[in-house]
Design goal:
heterodimer; A: alpha/beta; six-stranded mixed sheet; 14 strands; elongated; B: mainly alpha; two-stranded antiparallel sheet; globular; binds adenosine-5'-diphosphate; binds magnesium ion
Chain lengths: ~300, ~280
């Protein structure tokens, strides 16, 4: 099988069935090196299943692929992989520092206590380094999980809903951490159903629903750049019909005009034409499909 | 593998398994010890003097009874420690981040198995050695082959550990524990059936019993341990009297080949468990 060195994840037509439940129908994905890749989908879409196939925790029923250049399930790929599971649980009878020390040994690296504490500092747990994980709140355990995932300079970090238990400040911190990873050239695979989170950090995304990838690309590519313009005008005697003639169909409701076929770069010309016709322009708003609208379209289409 | 073994031992210590087992078992040994001291100072009963030979005979029988109960305790301890150590880690998700590291599932299972086998064997041998020592101090009695009998007891514990681990690769801790305990009891009854078959010269019953011993050799190891606790005089007297051999007494211990079978069985079950765990989706 051919592997593209620029990609950290290449999978083709992965499928997964758990008994009668079909969790994944067709997963074809390419994640490039150094990018933050958002994997979006509604609940039960198959995101966690996909991640488990990538991390070698479950075996695909069909399809194949590579992770960091090795076939799925190969242990060598896991040497440079960081992983935060959706259901994060760590040995609750160990201290936070001991959990990190354990993982450092499992990676096979000599990591100093200093480095472990630095890792805990990054996720805001430095003060609790010596406390048992069993005494941590859910959010603190998720922070610990993040520190575990970032340990040992991974090349690819897979995060399954990494902010599900975090407060708003924690979510912001995670975004900062993700940007820091990108700056260091680390690839990130971010599973999420939170559109805003994905919109803010991801370079490229894939939308998955009912076990299939229905869209893949950058956010503008998927959301669509523009879908017309809304203008609020008050005319000064002269009707605007002529001025608007060359801008395609439009609808009018009192002062509000909506011209759905006007592309973003023609908006200034439209405004100039309206002004030339003597109209007073109060507001101009380019209408674009938001990621949310597109997401709902894509994920509901198939449900119909 | 060593990391996981060390982690498993640490868990048993941190979760106070070790401390709890130590205190409870120390109480058990101390109480039986007190009983034997009491027995040794019994110089007269029902107006008849109690000879030292009588005390020694009684001690040998009592020690076998204690060993019999301890073999149950050991099997339960093995099952109830081994079954959750894998099942619970799978169910709670603690294993997910560990399995995403570059170590094989076989290594994880081997680490846990080795640690548990060491703990169970050490428990059997230490408890047994303390009991033998205290009995000796109280009455002067020494069983015929104390070391061999402890080694066989330890093996019966390891058999149950391996079996419970195999079950826990696919079942919940509770499910695996129940199945392992029931299997242990079936096999113990199988051992009795084997003796009944021999006593009445009934091949069918004997073979059925033998089959259970081969499938799960925990009782075969108990019978081997038992035979090493029986003074030669007792065996001779019982054989002459053609007494029916129950689970507390045997004149025909399993052949040496059974020891080889048991070791091979443990290895095979360990490999099967590794395979079963490796193929499981988490
Ligand atoms: N171990 C499993 N056994 C049976 N069904 C499962 C299992 N894991 C996931 N599923 C099913 O697969 C589908 C996708 O689940 P999942 O990947 O967890 O979705 P997501 O993470 O996108 O919310 C769901 O219908 C879920 O019920
Ligand atoms: Mg999920």
């Amino acid at each position: 099988m051919q592997t593209d060195c620029a990609n950290v994840v290449d999978v083709e037509h992965l499928a997964k069935q758990f008994g009668h439940v079909v969790a994944l129908v067709d997963l074809t994905l390419h994640v490039r090196k150094g990018e933050i890749f958002g994997f979006l989908g509604p609940n039960g879409a198959g995101k966690t299943t996909s991640v488990k196939l990538l991390a070698g925790l479950a075996r695909p029923s069909a399809g194949s692929g590579t992770l960091l250049g090795y076939p799925l399930g190969d242990r060598r790929a896991r040497r440079r992989l960081g992983y935060l599971p959706e259901l994060f649980r760590y040995h609750d009878w160990l201290t936070a520092r001991e959990v990190l020390a354990l993982h450092a040994r499992l990676i096979g690296e000599r990591v100093h206590v200093r480095d472990l504490d630095a890792a805990l500092q990054t996720v805001g747990l430095r003060a609790r380094a010596g406390d048992r994980v069993g005494t941590f709140s859910k959010g603190m355990q998720q922070r610990l999980g993040l520190a575990v995932a970032l340990l040992g300079n991974p090349e690819l970090v897979i995060l399954d809903e990494p902010t599900s238990a975090l407060d708003p400040a924690g979510r912001l911190e995670v975004r900062e951490i993700l940007r820091g990873l990108r700056d260091r050239g680390v690839s990130v695979f971010l599973n999420s159903h939170l559109l805003t989170e994905v919109e803010k950090v991801c370079d490229r995304i894939a939308i998955v629903t009912r076990g299939r990838v229905v869209a893949q690309g950058t956010i503008p590519e998927i959301a669509g750049a523009s879908a017309g313009v809304r203008v609020r005008v008050r005319e000064n005697g002269t009707p605007l019909t002529q001025a608007l003639a060359e801008y395609g169909p439009y609808t009018r409701d009192g002062e509000h005009i909506f011209a759905p076929e006007v592309h973003a770069d023609r908006i200034p010309a439209l405004v100039a034409a309206l002004v030339a016709a003597g109209a007073q322009v109060y507001a101009v708003e380019p209408a674009s499909t938001t990621l949310e609208e597109r997401f709902l379209q894509l994920t509901q289409e198939r449900g119909a | 593998m060593i990391e996981i073994a060390a982690l498993t031992l640490k868990e048993l210590v941190r979760r106070r398994f070790v401390a709890g087992a130590f205190v409870a078992t120390a109480a058990l040994v101390a109480l039986t010890g007190w009983g034997f001291f009491y027995l040794n100072h019994l110089h007269e009963a029902r107006g008849r003097p109690v000879t030292h030979l009588e005390v020694l005979t009684m001690t040998s029988v009592l020690l076998i009874l204690i060993a019999y109960l301890f073999s149950f305790l050991l099997a339960m301890a093995a099952v109830f420690i081994a079954a959750p150590t894998l099942s619970n880690d799978i169910e709670t998700g603690v294993l997910l981040p560990v399995l995403a590291r570059p170590l094989s599932r076989g290594a994880i299972l081997a680490g846990k198995g080795v640690a548990l086998a060491i703990v169970i064997a050490a428990y059997a041998i230490l408890t047994g050695a303390c009991e033998f020592a205290i009995v000796n101090a109280a009455t002067g009695y020494v069983p015929p082959a104390p070391a061999a009998s402890l080694a066989y007891l330890a093996l019966s514990g390891i058999v149950m550990t391996a079996f419970a681990l195999l079950l826990s690769t696919r079942m919940s801790a509770l499910g695996a524990s129940i199945v392992a305990v029931v299997a242990f009891i079936i096999v113990r009854l199988g051992g009795i059936a084997q003796n009944v078959g021999m006593y009445y010269d009934n091949e069918t019953v004997r073979h059925a019993g033998t089959l259970t011993q081969l499938l799960l050799p925990s009782d075969a190891m108990w019978q081997s341990a038992l035979f090493r606790l029986e003074p030669a005089g007792m065996v001779a007297a019982m054989s002459d009297a053609h007494v029916w051999p129950g689970p507390f007494f045997t004149t025909a211990p399993p052949p040496p080949a059974m020891l080889v079978w048991t070791c091979a069985w443990i290895v095979a079950v360990a490999l099967l468990a590794a395979r079963s765990f490796a193929l499981r989706d988490l």
